Amino acid sequence: MKKTGILLLLLTAFALSADAQKWEHIADTPQMGWSSWNKFQGNINEEIITGIADAMAASGLKEAGYTYINIDDCWHGKRDADGLMQADSSKFPHGMKWLADYVHARGMKLGIYTDCGTATCAGMPGSLGHEYQDALQYARWGIDYLKEDWCNTENVNPMGAYRLMSDALRAAGRPIFLSMCEWGTAKPWRWARDIGHSWRIGPDIWCSFDSLRVFPTSVQYSVMHCIHANDTLRAYAGKGHWNDPDMLEVGNGMTASEDRAHFTMWCMMASPLILGNDIRGMSDETRDIILNREMIAVDQDTLGVQGLHFCSERGLDFWFKPLAGGDWAFTILNPTKKAITYALNWQDFNLTDEEVSGRSTRFDAEVYRVRNLWTHRFEGKTSKKAKVERRITVPSHDVVAYRLIRQ
Questions:
Q1: Active-site annotation, residues
Q2: In the predicted model, is pLDDT for residue 113 greater than 70?
Q3: What is the CATH number of domain 308-406?
Q4: DSSP readout, 58-127?
Q5: What is the pTM of this model?
């Protein structure tokens, strides 16, 4: 494309974006998919991505709702003479348009990665000063999802930077999901609702249940650190705008119980479910966790409410999530290093979610059927009586999760 053509496109884009805002109704429930970073980091190529697309289609993941296949950092080549970003031809010889078509033909969507700064976290070209060019290029390629990181952003205003890219995506004319990866430094949950579809609430996750990973200039959060960072932010989440505690580490080296707890809590928090393992060759345990349709339904519930950390007692954390139709999800998380048996009396959990949904459990007046979301069995009913107790043992670094179905 000649420079004059690029200039006309950019001028048109700026004109269209005067009142632009993010694309609506592409994130009415939290996004689901897969990303390359947690497993492959910069060692990505076309063969890996097409293999992942084939595995997503063949394994039941697509049918379970995993829609996006996202290429993270290190796909970049150089900008051409007109400033348009190109893919690394040694890694992606057929180009991004071909790859998007490949993914689309299998019923899924393709995501890509950029950065608000001069360079990405891995030193590839960033989008600073090229936002409208990049948005137009992504739209031309058929990209459906953009993760925008926050490295190399000295003297850059985060609200302005992300709004600029949001407007550019809107002006480019193709609905593209905007995943903001600002790490929570500027508290994006307070201002990003009309700019992006999700925003990171903390540093990167790593494959650990409860250990902080410390570097000279940064840290990485464990599963429990991510949960603690997110459990006070539920009022900011909802349809079209989600708190993002980062991608899933299920299948990357934690125990099966830790993976189960990790997945359950992301569902309870209405978090994005972005897989980070190599799905081309995963264990049956990993497959069973990420394909738990009943647990996924909690995450994707149409009421769109992030779960409530109601209380902690005797080492256990008790979580409730109101669901559409009057149901509740109820999870007991055990973050300790030993199994704990708890005498559950439903009358201790009469609560009203005043902050977000206005819903009440009303165990003193309502009866619910109790459905175990991991054994997939009914386990009786709740009781209106004050002294009826149910003894539950929660293993170390594990959960017991129920759907309470209103009668």
A1: 149, 204
A2: yes
A3: 2.60.40.1180
A4: HSSHHHHT--EEE--SS-EEEE-TTS-EEE-TTT-TTHHHHHHHHHHHTT-EEEEEEESSSB-TTS-B--
A5: 0.95
pLDDT digits (tens, 9 = 90+) for 171-211: 999 999 999 999 999 999 999 999 999 999 999 999 999 99
Spatial neighbors of 309 by CB under 8 A, at least 6 apart, are: 231, 317, 318, 319
Which sequence spans correspond to the domains of the chain?
3-299, 308-406
- Identify the three-state secondary structure at position 219: strand
Nearest to 299 by CA among 44, 42, 64: 64
Among 227, 221, 212, 307, residue whose Cα is nearest residue 261: 227
The Cα–Cα gap between 329 and 209 comes to 22
**Among positive and negative, which fits the CA dihedral 244, 70, 140, 59?**
negative
CB of 179 within 8 A of CB of 192? no
H/E stretch holding 228: helix 223-230
Phi and psi of 18, rounded to 5°?
Answer: -55, -40
- pLDDT score for 20: 54
Give the separation between CA 307 and CA 266, rounded to whole angstroms.
9
Q: What is the mean pLDDT of the chain?
A: 95
CATH no., domain 3-299: 3.20.20.70
Question: Please, how many CA atoms are within 13 Å of residue 38, restricted to the half-sphere of its CB?
Answer: 23
